[in-house]
Amino acid sequence: MSFVEKRQKGLTRRDFIRGTAAGAVGGMVVGAAGTVLAASKAEPKPAQPAKGMPSEAMCAEIVKMRGHEGDTIDAYLARPTGPGPHPGVVVIHHMPGWDEASKEIARKFAYHGYAAISPNLHFREGKGTPEANSASVRDAGGMPDNRTMGDVEGAIRYLRALPYLNGKVGIIGYCSGGRQAYLAVCTLRGIDAAVACYPGGVGAGKEGLTPRQPVDPIDYTKDLSCPLLGLFGREDKRPSPGDVAKTEAELKKWGKSYEFHTYDNAGHSFFAVDRADYRPVAAVDGWKKVFQWFGKYLC
Known about the structure:
This protein is 34% helix and 21% strand. It has 299 residues and is α/β, with parallel strands linked by helices. It folds into two domains: 3-38, no CATH class; 58-298, 3-Layer(aba) Sandwich (Rossmann fold). The strands form two sheets. The chain has an eight-stranded mixed beta sheet, with helices on both faces. It has a two-stranded antiparallel ribbon with strand order 1-2. The longest helix is centred in the C-terminal third of the chain and has 19 residues, at 280-298.
Protein backbone atom coordinates (compact mmCIF):
# COMPACT_ATOMS: atom_id res chain seq x y z
CA MET A 1 0.00 0.00 0.00
CA SER A 2 1.44 3.35 -1.02
CA PHE A 3 1.81 6.29 1.36
CA VAL A 4 -0.99 8.15 -0.44
CA GLU A 5 -3.31 5.15 -0.04
CA LYS A 6 -2.47 4.96 3.63
CA ARG A 7 -3.23 8.66 4.05
CA GLN A 8 -6.57 8.22 2.34
CA LYS A 9 -7.47 5.13 4.36
CA GLY A 10 -6.47 6.38 7.77
CA LEU A 11 -3.68 7.69 9.97
CA THR A 12 -0.49 5.72 10.41
CA ARG A 13 1.14 5.41 13.85
CA ARG A 14 3.73 7.95 12.73
CA ASP A 15 0.94 10.31 11.61
CA PHE A 16 -0.80 9.89 14.94
CA ILE A 17 2.33 10.80 16.91
CA ARG A 18 3.13 13.68 14.57
CA GLY A 19 -0.42 14.99 14.76
CA THR A 20 -0.50 14.77 18.55
CA ALA A 21 2.72 16.71 18.79
CA ALA A 22 1.36 19.33 16.44
CA GLY A 23 -1.81 19.56 18.55
CA ALA A 24 0.32 20.29 21.59
CA VAL A 25 1.41 23.52 19.97
CA GLY A 26 -1.97 24.41 18.53
CA GLY A 27 -1.66 22.95 15.03
CA MET A 28 -4.09 19.99 15.26
CA VAL A 29 -5.47 17.48 17.70
CA VAL A 30 -6.58 13.92 17.02
CA GLY A 31 -9.94 12.54 18.07
CA ALA A 32 -10.41 9.14 19.66
CA ALA A 33 -11.47 7.65 16.33
CA GLY A 34 -8.38 8.96 14.59
CA THR A 35 -10.07 12.00 13.03
CA VAL A 36 -7.96 15.11 12.64
CA LEU A 37 -9.69 18.07 14.29
CA ALA A 38 -8.81 21.74 13.99
CA ALA A 39 -7.49 23.11 17.26
CA SER A 40 -10.14 25.05 19.16
CA LYS A 41 -9.71 28.78 19.31
CA ALA A 42 -11.21 31.40 21.56
CA GLU A 43 -14.39 32.94 20.19
CA PRO A 44 -13.55 36.30 18.62
CA LYS A 45 -15.12 39.34 20.18
CA PRO A 46 -17.80 40.96 18.01
CA ALA A 47 -16.43 43.82 15.98
CA GLN A 48 -17.61 47.23 17.08
CA PRO A 49 -19.00 49.48 14.35
CA ALA A 50 -16.98 52.58 13.61
CA LYS A 51 -18.42 55.82 14.87
CA GLY A 52 -21.29 56.87 12.65
CA MET A 53 -21.73 53.40 11.18
CA PRO A 54 -24.93 51.38 11.75
CA SER A 55 -25.08 48.60 14.34
CA GLU A 56 -26.39 45.59 12.43
CA ALA A 57 -26.94 43.54 15.60
CA MET A 58 -29.27 44.74 18.31
CA CYS A 59 -31.61 43.50 21.00
CA ALA A 60 -35.03 44.82 21.98
CA GLU A 61 -37.22 43.91 24.91
CA ILE A 62 -40.00 45.02 27.25
CA VAL A 63 -38.55 46.19 30.55
CA LYS A 64 -40.04 47.43 33.80
CA MET A 65 -39.10 50.90 34.98
CA ARG A 66 -40.07 53.23 37.80
CA GLY A 67 -42.13 56.16 36.63
CA HIS A 68 -44.19 58.89 38.26
CA GLU A 69 -44.43 58.54 42.05
CA GLY A 70 -42.55 55.24 41.87
CA ASP A 71 -45.15 53.47 39.72
CA THR A 72 -43.84 50.45 37.82
CA ILE A 73 -44.68 50.76 34.13
CA ASP A 74 -43.68 49.02 30.90
CA ALA A 75 -41.06 50.45 28.57
CA TYR A 76 -39.53 49.28 25.31
CA LEU A 77 -35.73 49.17 25.35
CA ALA A 78 -33.71 48.73 22.15
CA ARG A 79 -29.92 48.85 21.99
CA PRO A 80 -26.92 47.65 19.98
CA THR A 81 -25.53 44.31 21.18
CA GLY A 82 -21.97 45.62 21.46
CA PRO A 83 -20.63 46.70 24.86
CA GLY A 84 -20.63 50.39 23.98
CA PRO A 85 -20.47 52.95 25.36
CA HIS A 86 -23.66 54.16 23.67
CA PRO A 87 -25.54 57.46 23.91
CA GLY A 88 -29.11 57.20 25.19
CA VAL A 89 -32.41 58.49 23.81
CA VAL A 90 -35.84 58.67 25.41
CA VAL A 91 -38.50 58.19 22.72
CA ILE A 92 -41.84 59.77 23.66
CA HIS A 93 -44.61 58.15 21.67
CA HIS A 94 -47.39 60.02 19.90
CA MET A 95 -51.02 60.27 21.03
CA PRO A 96 -52.04 57.12 19.08
CA GLY A 97 -50.10 55.35 21.77
CA TRP A 98 -47.27 52.99 22.57
CA ASP A 99 -47.75 51.20 19.29
CA GLU A 100 -45.78 49.27 16.70
CA ALA A 101 -44.59 52.44 15.00
CA SER A 102 -43.21 53.82 18.29
CA LYS A 103 -41.25 50.63 18.93
CA GLU A 104 -39.93 50.72 15.38
CA ILE A 105 -38.53 54.19 16.06
CA ALA A 106 -36.71 52.87 19.14
CA ARG A 107 -35.18 50.08 17.03
CA LYS A 108 -34.10 52.62 14.41
CA PHE A 109 -32.14 54.45 17.09
CA ALA A 110 -30.57 51.16 18.23
CA TYR A 111 -29.53 50.46 14.65
CA HIS A 112 -27.76 53.81 14.63
CA GLY A 113 -25.87 53.04 17.83
CA TYR A 114 -28.14 54.44 20.55
CA ALA A 115 -29.69 52.85 23.62
CA ALA A 116 -33.32 53.92 23.21
CA ILE A 117 -36.14 53.60 25.71
CA SER A 118 -39.80 54.34 25.02
CA PRO A 119 -41.92 54.37 28.19
CA ASN A 120 -45.58 53.38 27.86
CA LEU A 121 -47.16 56.63 28.98
CA HIS A 122 -50.64 55.10 28.60
CA PHE A 123 -49.81 52.09 30.79
CA ARG A 124 -52.22 53.04 33.55
CA GLU A 125 -55.20 53.08 31.20
CA GLY A 126 -55.11 49.29 31.28
CA LYS A 127 -56.93 48.72 27.99
CA GLY A 128 -56.24 45.91 25.56
CA THR A 129 -54.79 47.91 22.66
CA PRO A 130 -52.86 51.15 22.09
CA GLU A 131 -55.92 52.53 20.30
CA ALA A 132 -58.19 51.85 23.27
CA ASN A 133 -55.68 53.37 25.69
CA SER A 134 -55.36 56.44 23.47
CA ALA A 135 -59.15 56.89 23.30
CA SER A 136 -59.34 56.67 27.09
CA VAL A 137 -56.65 59.35 27.43
CA ARG A 138 -58.39 61.67 24.98
CA ASP A 139 -61.73 61.27 26.75
CA ALA A 140 -60.07 62.25 30.03
CA GLY A 141 -58.57 65.47 28.61
CA GLY A 142 -55.14 64.26 27.55
CA MET A 143 -52.13 63.02 29.43
CA PRO A 144 -51.58 64.72 32.80
CA ASP A 145 -48.43 66.80 32.46
CA ASN A 146 -47.14 66.04 35.97
CA ARG A 147 -47.55 62.28 35.52
CA THR A 148 -45.97 62.34 32.07
CA MET A 149 -42.95 64.27 33.32
CA GLY A 150 -42.59 61.78 36.17
CA ASP A 151 -42.53 58.89 33.69
CA VAL A 152 -40.08 60.67 31.37
CA GLU A 153 -37.82 61.45 34.31
CA GLY A 154 -37.92 57.77 35.25
CA ALA A 155 -36.86 56.83 31.71
CA ILE A 156 -33.92 59.24 31.94
CA ARG A 157 -32.87 57.64 35.23
CA TYR A 158 -33.19 54.18 33.69
CA LEU A 159 -30.84 55.09 30.85
CA ARG A 160 -28.33 56.78 33.13
CA ALA A 161 -28.11 53.61 35.24
CA LEU A 162 -27.13 51.42 32.27
CA PRO A 163 -23.50 50.28 32.44
CA TYR A 164 -22.98 50.81 28.72
CA LEU A 165 -24.25 54.41 28.54
CA ASN A 166 -21.71 57.02 27.40
CA GLY A 167 -23.09 59.56 29.88
CA LYS A 168 -25.29 61.45 27.39
CA VAL A 169 -29.08 61.30 27.09
CA GLY A 170 -31.29 62.89 24.45
CA ILE A 171 -35.05 63.07 24.09
CA ILE A 172 -37.34 63.01 21.07
CA GLY A 173 -41.12 63.21 20.78
CA TYR A 174 -43.76 63.24 18.09
CA CYS A 175 -47.16 65.00 18.05
CA SER A 176 -48.27 65.20 21.70
CA GLY A 177 -44.90 63.59 22.45
CA GLY A 178 -43.23 66.59 20.82
CA ARG A 179 -45.11 68.85 23.22
CA GLN A 180 -44.01 66.64 26.09
CA ALA A 181 -40.41 66.68 24.89
CA TYR A 182 -40.50 70.50 24.89
CA LEU A 183 -42.01 70.49 28.36
CA ALA A 184 -39.39 68.01 29.58
CA VAL A 185 -36.38 70.07 28.51
CA CYS A 186 -37.88 73.07 30.31
CA THR A 187 -38.78 71.32 33.57
CA LEU A 188 -36.43 68.33 33.96
CA ARG A 189 -32.68 67.92 34.26
CA GLY A 190 -30.35 65.31 32.82
CA ILE A 191 -31.17 65.92 29.13
CA ASP A 192 -28.30 66.83 26.81
CA ALA A 193 -30.19 67.42 23.54
CA ALA A 194 -33.79 67.35 22.35
CA VAL A 195 -35.86 66.97 19.19
CA ALA A 196 -39.51 68.06 19.02
CA CYS A 197 -41.37 66.79 15.96
CA TYR A 198 -44.54 68.81 15.17
CA PRO A 199 -45.21 69.48 18.90
CA GLY A 200 -48.96 70.12 18.94
CA GLY A 201 -49.99 72.76 21.43
CA VAL A 202 -46.65 74.52 21.85
CA GLY A 203 -47.26 78.17 21.07
CA ALA A 204 -51.03 77.72 20.87
CA GLY A 205 -51.74 79.81 23.99
CA LYS A 206 -54.93 78.92 25.82
CA GLU A 207 -56.32 76.92 22.91
CA GLY A 208 -56.63 73.26 23.89
CA LEU A 209 -55.58 73.67 27.53
CA THR A 210 -57.24 71.32 30.02
CA PRO A 211 -57.01 70.71 33.78
CA ARG A 212 -54.56 67.92 32.94
CA GLN A 213 -52.52 70.18 30.66
CA PRO A 214 -52.98 73.63 32.21
CA VAL A 215 -50.01 75.48 30.67
CA ASP A 216 -48.67 76.08 27.18
CA PRO A 217 -45.06 74.76 27.33
CA ILE A 218 -43.87 77.92 25.59
CA ASP A 219 -44.36 79.68 28.92
CA TYR A 220 -41.44 77.66 30.33
CA THR A 221 -39.02 78.49 27.51
CA LYS A 222 -36.75 80.60 29.69
CA ASP A 223 -35.86 77.38 31.58
CA LEU A 224 -35.05 75.30 28.49
CA SER A 225 -31.86 73.48 29.46
CA CYS A 226 -30.32 72.03 26.26
CA PRO A 227 -30.10 72.48 22.47
CA LEU A 228 -33.43 71.92 20.71
CA LEU A 229 -34.18 70.79 17.16
CA GLY A 230 -37.72 71.40 15.89
CA LEU A 231 -39.16 69.73 12.78
CA PHE A 232 -42.46 70.94 11.30
CA GLY A 233 -44.80 70.63 8.33
CA ARG A 234 -45.91 73.84 6.66
CA GLU A 235 -49.45 72.47 6.17
CA ASP A 236 -49.86 71.53 9.83
CA LYS A 237 -52.59 73.18 11.87
CA ARG A 238 -51.33 72.16 15.31
CA PRO A 239 -48.72 73.50 15.52
CA SER A 240 -49.63 76.00 12.85
CA PRO A 241 -46.94 78.10 11.13
CA GLY A 242 -48.06 80.92 13.44
CA ASP A 243 -47.47 78.73 16.52
CA VAL A 244 -44.00 77.84 15.21
CA ALA A 245 -43.13 81.51 14.63
CA LYS A 246 -44.27 82.39 18.14
CA THR A 247 -42.16 79.60 19.64
CA GLU A 248 -39.11 80.61 17.65
CA ALA A 249 -39.47 84.22 18.80
CA GLU A 250 -39.56 83.04 22.41
CA LEU A 251 -36.43 80.93 21.95
CA LYS A 252 -34.62 83.91 20.46
CA LYS A 253 -35.83 86.13 23.27
CA TRP A 254 -34.17 83.90 25.86
CA GLY A 255 -31.03 83.23 23.81
CA LYS A 256 -31.59 79.48 23.52
CA SER A 257 -29.65 77.16 21.22
CA TYR A 258 -32.05 75.76 18.63
CA GLU A 259 -32.70 74.93 14.98
CA PHE A 260 -36.12 74.86 13.31
CA HIS A 261 -36.86 73.30 9.93
CA THR A 262 -40.24 73.47 8.20
CA TYR A 263 -41.04 71.21 5.27
CA ASP A 264 -43.20 72.17 2.32
CA ASN A 265 -45.91 69.76 1.19
CA ALA A 266 -46.02 68.21 4.64
CA GLY A 267 -48.47 68.47 7.51
CA HIS A 268 -48.80 66.77 10.87
CA SER A 269 -47.33 63.28 11.41
CA PHE A 270 -45.16 63.33 8.30
CA PHE A 271 -42.79 60.85 9.98
CA ALA A 272 -45.57 58.28 10.53
CA VAL A 273 -44.93 55.52 7.98
CA ASP A 274 -48.23 53.78 8.80
CA ARG A 275 -50.43 56.83 8.22
CA ALA A 276 -51.73 58.74 5.21
CA ASP A 277 -49.89 61.84 6.48
CA TYR A 278 -46.50 60.19 5.80
CA ARG A 279 -44.30 62.30 3.53
CA PRO A 280 -41.15 60.36 2.57
CA VAL A 281 -39.14 63.34 1.30
CA ALA A 282 -39.66 65.28 4.53
CA ALA A 283 -39.21 62.18 6.70
CA VAL A 284 -35.95 61.08 5.09
CA ASP A 285 -34.44 64.54 5.41
CA GLY A 286 -35.86 64.86 8.92
CA TRP A 287 -34.13 61.67 10.04
CA LYS A 288 -30.84 62.96 8.65
CA LYS A 289 -31.22 66.11 10.71
CA VAL A 290 -32.15 64.11 13.83
CA PHE A 291 -29.01 61.99 13.64
CA GLN A 292 -26.83 64.98 12.82
CA TRP A 293 -28.25 66.77 15.86
CA PHE A 294 -27.82 63.89 18.27
CA GLY A 295 -24.45 63.05 16.73
CA LYS A 296 -23.28 66.57 17.53
CA TYR A 297 -24.50 66.68 21.12
CA LEU A 298 -24.65 63.07 22.33
CA CYS A 299 -21.79 61.18 20.62
